[in-house]
Amino acid sequence: MNLLPVADRSEVRRAAVRLMRGEWRTSAAVLVLTVLTALVGLVGPYLLGKIVGGVERGGLVASTVDLMALGVLGAAVAHLLLVRYSALQTARLGERFLASLREEAVTRSLALPARVVDRLSTGDLLTRVTSDVGTVGQALRDSVPEVFTGVVHIVVVFVAMFLLDPVLGLVAFAGTPLIVWVLRWYLVRARGAYLAESVANGDVAEISAAVGEGSRTIEVYGLRDRMVTAADDTIARLYRARLRTLRLRNVLFPVGSFVNALPTVLVLLVGGLAHAADGVGIEVVVTGALWTWRLVEPMDRILMWVEFVQRGAASFARIEGIGASAEPVPPVGEPENDRIEVRGVRYSYVDGNEVLHGVDLVVQPGERLAVVGVSGAGKSTLGRLMAGVDRPAAGSVLVGGVPVADLVAAGEQRIVLVTQEHHVFIGTLRENLAMAAPDAPDERLLEALRTVGARWFDELPDGLDTRLGAGGVELDPAQAQQLSLARVEVADPHTLVLDEATSSLDPATARHAERAIAAVRESRTVIAIAHRLQTARDADRIAVVDAGRIVELGSHDDLVARDGTYAALWRSWHGS
Q: Hey, which residues does 371 pair with through a beta bridge?
């Protein structure tokens, strides 16, 4: 299984700038609010220093001390309110960033080419759109706001210290080189460590899903010991990856705790000596010590949350990596007609192993074409290419002179592939139907349900507003298939590609589904991937695929009379 790429640092920076550019006014407002909060936080210590200095000199009266004490109290209350409001606004900004990121992740996942998805590790993609998005969400809600406000507070305090007394400002800055060194040491190693941990998480999710889905097969073939060994190896890799990140934290936090206390101690020591030598007033020493003590809380905050920021950055890089495999939406013109042309198409799922070899085919508007062949001949692959689900490695698949895959990428549903897989999405019946045509009126949705014979609609408690899926009305397989076909009817494509849409249903359910399919096929071009030759008999033409090539093309009677590949398949089908 392949893994999706990971965005490099420059791509992550560009993506972060792109997110911030969309909210630059709010970001600027949050920055101003944070700076104001930090400035108000300096008022209380400054007034306390003035009180101490005034008392030492004996020039303060009780009423003045009381007023200054009230000022300290007022500043504390104002600071508390600003901190809460600033945190609220910063968290809201983070949620807006997260909403944009979630939308991008879903959009990019849906834009992944089918050939890429087929080769992907399920666990890798799953963890990127779930746990990685959740990690980034925690970073945006908690970590980034805490680190951002902490950095702003530290900068404000240092600037204030230099304005108060340049010497004490330098002293307060003494521990900064050490904290910068340990942060740099940590960050250089953390990206790779946390990316490795994310990959290991994906591997665990992958093997967990494989064991859960294939438990019966594992039991039947006695694969328990092999799967247990594979699971142990995967979990061991995750353990080693987490142990590596733990070692990094065991260096970061102790050094950070030591550096936190250093500025206050040095300011008190140097300031005390300077005051004893009549170099500075006592109020300067007190104010400086209280301000440097205010560095401890934001520094602790930064050290505590920097790990989560790094986790979030690694997850952000993985999410951005989804877009590297997505295909850009090309500019497309309007097709001249509904004629489908397959020209020299070649395709391979694995490099060097072609499934289709130079296929040529033309399907006229309104034609009923059946595509038949033995299993593995390339029938379904050809159907997927004709529906625009994937692109050929060479050659072209055109409708009206325009590449079908380009139309699909641009959101044009001219050709729809109907398979045995049908999906009921969590939401209302209206939402399930209207996703094929968001602007479709209710009358069109109801007409589509009537067309496919979905009589069960009349029994729904809330009509089109009835919720389906988990927590709502559960549809049986026949109803789910009718819903999928009604969705196709709403999309109103000119061509249907049917890949045995009823093969996995029981006979009674299949009969209902086939009647619904017959209604949807009416007045449309139909390309039927026929695994059962009875389906092919009534087609206008039959294309016989063998080893990735179309070896015969004609009507049923013509092909039987030729006594070639199709005739042999027909005799085998009828046991003659």
A: 529, 543
Question: For residue 498, what pLDDT is reported?
Answer: 84
Q: What is the pLDDT of residue 507?
A: 53
DSSP code for 99: H
Q: Which two tokens stand for residue 429?
A: 């019946």
Sign (positive or negative) of CA dihedral 84, 86, 89, 94:
negative
| The one-letter amino acid at 413 | Q
Residue 511 confidence (pLDDT):
59
The total number of residues written for the chain in this structure: 576
The amino acid sitting at 416 is V
Question: Which of 289, 43, 283, 40 minimizes the C-alpha distance to 172?
Answer: 289
Tell me the two tokens of residue 347: 């395709």
Q: State the CB neighbour count (10 A cutoff) for residue 264.
A: 20
From the first residue on, what is the mean pLDDT of each consecutive set of 10 residues in the chain (576 residues)?
75 81 81 86 83 75 82 88 84 81 79 68 75 80 78 86 86 80 83 83 83 81 86 90 87 78 82 84 85 79 75 83 70 84 89 86 90 87 88 90 84 79 83 84 87 84 85 81 84 83 53 62 80 78 91 90 88 71
How far, in Å, CA of 501 to CA of 529, rounded?
Answer: 9
Cβ contacts of residue 226 below 8 Å, gap of 6+? Answer: none
Integer angstrom CA distances of residue 294 from 154, 173, 284, 305, 456: 8, 13, 15, 18, 67
Quick one: 265 exposed, middle or buried, by C-beta within 10 A (0-12, 13-18, 19+)? middle
460, 402, 390, 400: which is closest to 429 by C-alpha? 460
- For residue 279, the 8-state DSSP code is S
Q: What 3-state class would DSSP assign to 470?
A: coil
Note whether 311 and 201 are within 8 A (CB): no
CA distances for 148 relative to 13, 184, 519, angstroms: 16, 17, 60
Among candidate residues 443, 452, 500, 498, the one with its CA nearest the CA of residue 478: 452
Beta bridge partners of 55: none
537: three-class secondary structure by DSSP:
helix
Given this model, what pLDDT does residue 553 score? 92
| Cβ–Cβ under 8 Å, residues 467 and 473 | yes
Is the CA virtual torsion 20, 24, 28, 30 positive or negative? negative
Question: Which residues are CB-contacts of 408 (< 8 A; sequence separation ≥ 6)?
Answer: 387, 388, 389, 415
Looking at residue 359, what is its pLDDT?
92
Shortest CA distance to 362 belongs to which of 393, 401, 392? 401
Which pLDDT score, from 0 to 100, does residue 550 have?
Answer: 92
The pLDDT value recorded for residue 575 is: 62
Place of tokens 């479709």: 440
Report the chain's terminal Cα–Cα distance, integer Å: 43
- Angle at which helix 62-110 crosses helix 9-21, to 10 degrees, equals 110
Task: Map 272-329 to HEC letters.
Answer: HHHHHCCCCCHHHHHHHHHHHHCCHHHHHHHHHHHHHHHHHHHHHHHHHHHHHHCCCC
